Amino acid sequence: MAVSFEPIVTAAKAPSLDRDHRVYRASQYPYDLWFLVASFIAFIALCRFISFLCNKYLKRERKSSESAVSNDEEKNSQSANPGRKLRLSRSLIALVNLYRIIAYRLTFTVGSFSINLAEIVVCLVYIGANFLFLFINTKNVAGKFDITYWNNRAGAIATSQYPLVIALATKNNIISLLTGVGYEKLSFLHRMVARTALILSWVHAGGNMGTRFANDKDEVFLQTGVMATVAFTFLFFFSLRPIRGQSYELFFYTHVAMSLIILGGTYYHVAPFVDGTTGRSYGAYVWPCFIIWGLDRIIRGIRLIMFNRSYFGFGSGSTLDATTELLSPTLVRITMKRPSSFRWSPGQYAYVVMPGVSLLPFEGHPFTIVSHDSQIASNEIAMAASANGVSTRTSTTYWKELVFLVDVQQGFTKRLAEVAARRESIKAYVDGPYGRRLHLDSFNALVLIAGGTGVSYTLPILLDLIERVKTGRAICKRIVFIWSIRDPSYIQWVSDAIQSAALLAPSFLTVDIRIFVTGSTSDSPVKTESDAEQSSTDSKDELDLQEAGPSSANEKNVENVKIFGTSPLSTTTGRAPLEMILQEEAEKANGGAICVAVCGSISMNNTVRNALRWPVAGPATVMRGGASVNLIVESFAYA
């Protein structure tokens, strides 16, 4: 079918001051919006660079100050005291802590969704900028409001943001590279930018439903535009949180299919129209999306082949066999030999691809890497474990191999649990790692808090930091590891790894491990990793600390449970008193720097945020010599 754009060409030849204004503004305002977006990204990148330099400087300064302190009594004399005078020299540190409290610890929670003030401000500024450029200067040369000034401008602005939408959705993108923010942390921006573009698309379509639909209904550019808008609308509904949570696979496949329809339809819709500023087709906003998406796929493909050479037949050795274990009806542990060139940092995750379990051969699911990429020799770990009655196999596993703890839901994870129940080994390969790298070397103390499977995030941080302190790369003197679980039998998930970490810790590093059991305790002894092969637990690994109720002296029952051979571990029944613990640890930091990392339910994360506001980390406390507190929050996410 031959397509004619003669009406467009003829209109372009006829001189019209109104038309010239409309064309200029519709083409200029997308550039102005991109200037704001690029400036914001550059600002965050600059802040990241300054933060990196400050961390290097502070690490050296804190290390020097630690060596200058001769004994604990002298240290204690430096601790924060409410009666001490304000020290102006700590004003900058106090302002930084005030910003952290306001920007990241003031949150708003609706159901399972939580957002902090910094994210709210970014969203509101971006949305406001879009609609500001949409509605300003919408009067014609006669001074009257003209709907044609903004309906087509809405389409131009929406189309111009497509590259940003795609970049925020890809695993390997320049925004993460510049800002240091992992793509998973950018997902809320991806959704916000996409939904803003969808609203603008609706405005554009609604403003053209009159004469344009009546006169050009047979034109390809109009048909493809309608197709793209309808596909965009379907994509929005399939991306809602209930669908993502209940049926991730449905969300994923419809997302890919609708995205291709949107990009293809939009390209053919805008290609006939010319940018009045540069003279280029508006298709110049769309075809870069395919390059961004394709480049991400190429990078992922190269990494897949590089990390899994034996799987694809390019290297020596057998294919990657993953061992599966059903630790409980709702938890699977996957153990894989680490590919020779695969390196990761604590808190990062990888996509695990199991063609024998997945519906499609290259279907990947993200899971946090529970193990640590250790540089310590395996025999050193094994000897320390063997001397203290700890299983050498499981202790070295968490330090040397790839380990994942998988929460069983529906779809892929449910099929994986069926495989694990039969204790089968399956072929698997990995894509990653993803997620930001943590820089914790400059902190004097570290508090790790986890709920249930949140230990997947905090355990590798514990293992890594002990090793870094042991080798002189970190200055930390105290680590507090808090884990809240529903049943004491959950300890067997990572018991030997925790024991190995404690055994390898140098004498000057205090490692305080506290485990709180929020559910009913069992009369049977807690099983070690080596006993886990013969039994499984009947419990859930999801955790909501608020359901445990308030803790009191009568509810607490301390039990010495022998899970490490002859080494007892103290467990406490009842809810963890996080506010009290954090206040105590902040005081013990003696005016230094303390980092708190938490991974758990929304209620647990919010409890920690609230505890680290005022007065624990308030500016007045800091200026009186109190600790500077940094907070890292990870949440349970859909797999």
TrEMBL record:
Per UniProt, subcellular location reads as: Cell membrane
> By its UniProt entry, which Pfam families does this protein fall under?
FAD_binding_8, Ferric_reduct, NAD_binding_6
Provide the transmembrane region boundaries: 33-54, 113-136, 220-238, 250-270, 282-299, 443-463
**Residue span, FAD-binding FR-type domain:** 313-440
Q: From which domain of life does this come?
A: Eukaryota
| Biased composition regions of type Polar residues, renumbered to the chain | 521-537
Does RNA-binding appear among the keywords? no
Question: Which top EC class applies here?
Answer: oxidoreductase
Record flagged with keyword Manganese = no
Which named protein is this?
Answer: ferric-chelate reductase (NADPH)
**Annotated organism of origin:** Tetrapyrgos nigripes
